[in-house]
Amino acid sequence: xxxxxxLWAGCFTAVLLWSGYQPKDTFTWFLEVLPALIGAVLLVxxxxxxxxxxxxxxxxxxxxxxxMVGGHFTYAEVPLFDTIKPWFGFERNNYDKVGHLMQGFxxxxxxxxxxxxxxxxxxxxxxxLFVVSICLAFSAFYELIxxxxxxxxxxxxxxxxxxxxxAWDTQSxxxxxxxxxxxxxxxxxxxxxxxxAKL
Length: 199
Description:
Layout: H1 3-20, H2 26-46, H3 54-73, H4 79-83, H5 85-88, H6 95-117, H7 124-153, H8 158-161, H9 169-198
């Protein structure tokens, strides 16, 4: 492992330990942090045979941190977003929307990297369509997971769902993921191409 890998692992571990120390709700913490843990295991398992671009490693770390912060406080009770609610006239804590934006933004670059490196799609136009479709599918599948957890655990899943009484929470979550995916393609594609060329 090089210095950047140690820094990545150190940052991930430090935030994970902070997140797991006296979280608001242990069950919710586990559910929210589990994707970050699975992601970290997959990164370690594929590090030598399929190393990713530095940009993607950084984005994945940022996404993991968003998940771990949400897990510690629950998405409906992140203090900073309670503080800024009156500034924008929000009626709810919108930290979960940051999470769903990242749910599109980061997987878009991950999907793009795999599609390009595996030469799955040669046309960039079709590739962008596939990337956005993959991100939307992933977002919809995550909403199904939330539904299944709610059915299985009943009242204890309320903090995990984080709907805060908003009837269109599921649809807006997917819209934020879609926005994140499109934004990632528009803002990062050229930079990503430069990093891909160095692999």
